[in-house]
């Protein structure tokens, strides 16, 4: 019996008229999210990052050489506001991990690019991050991971339209 089972048992005793399966699912997802977030944060912290800074650096890295995107593209990929992105970029730039490069054609246009230091850091961090994700998902077999991924994708599609 896990913590969620105990909560469900209390509700069943107090409100036997309620169908509680979704409460169990959502409660476990919430608790898993907390545990998984803490597990991933350990890797980020070990590299001097947090989830937000990792997100920006990883987005730039996976964009391919020259590892540069506009702030608008970064906002689209990371789903944050302009002000939030500006703060993240300011911090990363102060650490020497990214640089803002002005366009030669349009002085108002800027791209954000990984520096050599930023590229080296994200290479190390993402390698450890993926190994950590394997560890965090390791309670499930490969087949269970595939099935859970399929089910979560189906569930997510009910909230977000499929992308091209």
From TrEMBL:
InterPro entries noted in UniProt: HTH_MarR-typ (IPR000835), WH-like_DNA-bd_sf (IPR036388), WH_DNA-bd_sf (IPR036390)
Where do the HTH marR-type domain residues begin and end?
22-157
Q: Which residues form the signal peptide?
A: none
Keyword Ubl conjugation on entry: no
Keywords from UniProt, A to Z, are: DNA-binding, Transcription, Transcription regulation
| Classification via Pfam families | MarR_2 (PF12802)
Is the keyword Transcription in the record?
A: yes
**What PANTHER family does this protein map onto?**
TRANSCRIPTIONAL REGULATOR, MARR, TRANSCRIPTIONAL REPRESSOR OF EMRAB OPERON
Q: What is this protein called?
A: MarR family transcriptional regulator
